Amino acid sequence: MIIKKIFNNNTLLAKNLDKDEFVVMGCGIAFKKKIGDEVDEGLIEKTFILKQKDASEKFKLLLEDIPAEHVSLCYDIIEYAKNILGVELSDYIYVTLTDHISYALKLFEEGLNRPNALIWEIKKFYPKEFSVGLKALDFIEDEVAKRLPEDEAGNIALHLINAQMNNSNNKVEDIAHQTKMIQDILNIIKYTYNIQLDEKSLNYERFVTHLRFFFQRLNRNEKIETEEDDFLLKQVKVKYKKAYECMLKIQSYLEKELSEEEQLYLTIHIQRVTQR
Fold first, then answer.
1. Torsion angle, CA of 82/86/87/92, rounded to 10 degrees?
2. Structural element, H or E, at residue 60
3. Which of 97, 86, 84 is nearest to 48 (CA)?
4. What's the chain's average pLDDT?
5. pLDDT of 164-212, one tens digit each?
6. Is the distance from CB of 264 to CB of 236 less than 8 angstroms?
7. Is Repeat a UniProt keyword of this protein (predicted)?
8. Strand partners, 3
């Protein structure tokens, strides 16, 4: 690999014989080096391969402004998240999370704290991502000897949730809005039935998972309907009358006419989640 650009003594941009670009990090890997020199591959500790061109360009710009230790730290957090969550993450996570954590550390040093209004909902609906967020706080403390507040674990979780979406244009704010809507829907069910939902039940977990993907389908305007859905919905209306009426309240809240398929499965999930 040949050096294409040097960011600092420990970070550089390299290209191989196929002209693929890589950001590589290693202690002293660029020390006394110049553009065009061979990369000492024995010094490489971390390699960033960003296939999405836009993400790659933004990441290179980020490297101009952010301390190398923050970049290295976020690499470790992202690799840990991939292993624990077992999912593919968008390349943009290297840009968004690195930028976020570096800025969060700057605010922390200035004595400023950004509370996360959705911390409770994130803990409930995205426990795996939140646990990774908590572990990330340990990574940060080990690296820079600063313990960020629990709210930041929630913020990190939101970035991880966002990076799992197929559409890289989704913003963390959109995920936060979606999380609030899930909570509102659960509240509609609680008030309609005047009950507390069993948050540890399998039906509850399935329902929240259904809602997460339901909102993704709404955002993509996906509609799947069959004659069978129409037939089943007519039966469900009669058999699960209260659940169907609750579904209509949710549809009204969403201000969107749902397909018969969505009405059917939402009603069935409501019926299941409200049964003891």
1. 0
2. helix 53-65
3. 97
4. 87
5. 864 445 567 777 888 899 999 999 999 999 999 998 887 888 888 788 8
6. yes
7. yes
8. 14
